[in-house]
């Protein structure tokens, strides 16, 4: 009679033991950058600390930075907790850097309507680099070798992986499954968990997901903040606003909006520059461009220095970031709009300000139009009392008797011209 209760108790004990093991879910939606890399690495460490049975990385990315991709791939391949990379939901993609991450997983999965591939290196401006360039050949060969090694280590189609780098080959989910690039297709997390139940890994471990709890680990505020600042277009706009704002503030008296906006923008830009690979040559060209524009304001050269400054700014802008991913690049539109708008505003303000400084000083106040009282008989000159002060005045319509009201019609140095009010 007591045996059924023993089996029931044992069943509930096993269920509770499974629920004690959690499945950690991470979401990488956007470009691969140092912020998203820090998030994934934090999630893997947290999974190991909690003794999680599995990590699911939901992936939807157009690509990103090579250094951040390398960090994520190394962390996944070195993880003691099995990592499942799922390209989803339907409509998502794992392009460029995402292909490396997908192939590095213990289990690679995709949803219907998703794609992967196109891992060929692309220049900053978005054009394919010249394959005859020895430097470009080194970059392509290095990327092809790395992705082939990753695919072979996970038992996946290494030939296609290399083709994804050298020829920008792409696959949809069904094609990827047929060619052995991925392990399974699932259109939702629920379906993915169901298909992972009893899945055998290459190292002999068997996955169990039926009774395990799913815990989603999101990006914290710091990671989200730096993820936004990892966009070269945003960093570039902030850098331009910061430098232009400080230049305007230093060339005008007082502390105002230019100092506040310029300082905050420049600090945010510095944070962003720490996340992105930059070229010191590009930084030098940008600073030279600003110097030439400011110099042209003080030393008119019929616009020659301004044109040279703009040329230096444009060259510096496109050599500022050393990024090879098409997903993380500085666009022509951003450079043209930012430089054109801010340069026009700065030149206009500085030109008007310097023109005003060259004008002859004028009194801050004038007595013209005010009414006072004659303290002498003006025939035609004498003292008048206007706005609490005595002034020597000359009457335009003499004589004016003492005590009569007079109106100031002109102020010439230390004396006034008045007429009968």
Can you describe what's shown?
By secondary structure, the chain is α/β, with parallel strands linked by helices. It folds into 3 domains: 3-224, Alpha-Beta Complex (2-enoyl-CoA Hydratase, Chain A, domain 1); 231-358, no CATH class; 371-420, OB fold (Dihydrolipoamide Acetyltransferase, E2P). Helices cover 49% and strands 17% of the residues. The chain has 14 helices and 14 strands. The radius of gyration is 36 Å and the shape is elongated. Mean pLDDT is 83; it is low at 12-20 and 123-129.
Q: Which term fits the overall shape?
A: elongated
- Order of SSEs: HEHEHEEHEEHHEHEHEHHHHHHEEEEE
Task: Provide the CATH architecture of the largest domain.
Answer: Alpha-Beta Complex
- What is the number of helical segments per DSSP (H or I, 4+ residues)? 14
Strand content: 15-25%
Overall average residue pLDDT: 83
Structural class: alpha/beta
Distance between the termini: 123 Å
Which fold does the CATH topology of the largest domain refer to? 2-enoyl-CoA Hydratase, Chain A, domain 1
Cα radius of gyration in angstroms: 36 Å
* Unreliable stretches covering 5 or more consecutive residues: 12-20, 123-129
CATH superfamily of the largest domain: 2-enoyl-CoA Hydratase, Chain A, domain 1
Largest sheet data:
6 strands, parallel
Task: Assign a percent range to the helix content.
Answer: 40-55%
Class of the largest domain, according to the CATH hierarchy? Answer: Alpha Beta
Extended strand count: 14
Strand order of the largest sheet: 8-5-3-2-1-9
């Amino acid at each position: 009679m007591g045996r059924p209760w023993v089996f029931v108790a044992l069943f509930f004990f096993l269920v509770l033991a499974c629920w004690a093991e959690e499945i950690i879910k991470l979401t990488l939606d956007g470009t691969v950058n140092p912020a998203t890399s820090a998030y994934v690495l934090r999630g893997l460490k947290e999974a190991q600390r909690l003794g999680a049975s599995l990590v699911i990385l939901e992936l939807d990315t157009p690509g990103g930075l090579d250094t951040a991709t390398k960090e994520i791939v190394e962390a996944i391949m070195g993880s003691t907790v099995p990592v499942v990379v799922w390209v989803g939901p339907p409509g998502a993609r794992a392009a460029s850097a995402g292909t490396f991450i997908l192939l590095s997983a213990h289990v690679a999965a995709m949803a219907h309507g998703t794609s992967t591939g196109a891992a060929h290196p692309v220049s900053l401006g978005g054009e394919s680099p010249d394959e005859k360039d020895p430097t470009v050949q080194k970059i392509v060969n290095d990327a092809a070798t790395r992705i082939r090694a990753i695919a072979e280590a996970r038992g996946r189609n290494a030939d296609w992986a290399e083709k994804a780098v050298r020829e920008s080959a792409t696959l949809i989910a069904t094609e990827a499954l047929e060619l052995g690039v991925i392990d399974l297709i699932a259109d939702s997390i629920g379906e993915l968990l169901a298909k992972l139940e009893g899945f055998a890994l290459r190292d002999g471990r068997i996955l169990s997901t039926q009774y395990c709890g799913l815990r989603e680990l999101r990006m914290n505020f710091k990671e989200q903040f730096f993820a936004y600042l990892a966009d070269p277009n945003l960093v570039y706009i902030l850098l331009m606003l910061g430098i232009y704002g400080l230049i305007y503030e230093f060339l005008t008296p007082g502390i105002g909006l230019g100092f506040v906006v310029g300082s905050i923008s420049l600090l945010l830009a510095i944070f962003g520059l720490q996340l992105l690979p930059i070229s010191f040559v590009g930084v030098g060209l940008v600073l030279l461009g600003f110097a030439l524009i400011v110099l042209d304001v003080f030393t008119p050269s019929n616009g020659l220095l301004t044109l040279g400054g703009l040329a230096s700014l444009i060259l510096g802008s496109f050599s500022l970031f050393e990024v090879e991913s098409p997903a993380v690049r500085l666009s022509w539109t951003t450079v043209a709009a930012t430089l054109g708008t801010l340069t026009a505003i700065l030149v206009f303000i500085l030109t008007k300000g310097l023109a005003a400084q060259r004008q002859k000083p004028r009194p801050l106040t004038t007595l013209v139009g005010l009414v006072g009282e004659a303290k002498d008989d003006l025939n035609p000159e004498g003292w008048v009392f206007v706005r609490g002060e005595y002034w020597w005045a000359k009457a335009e319509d003499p004589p004016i008797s003492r005590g009569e009201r007079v109106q100031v019609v002109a102020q010439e140095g230390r004396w006034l011209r008045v007429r009968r009010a």
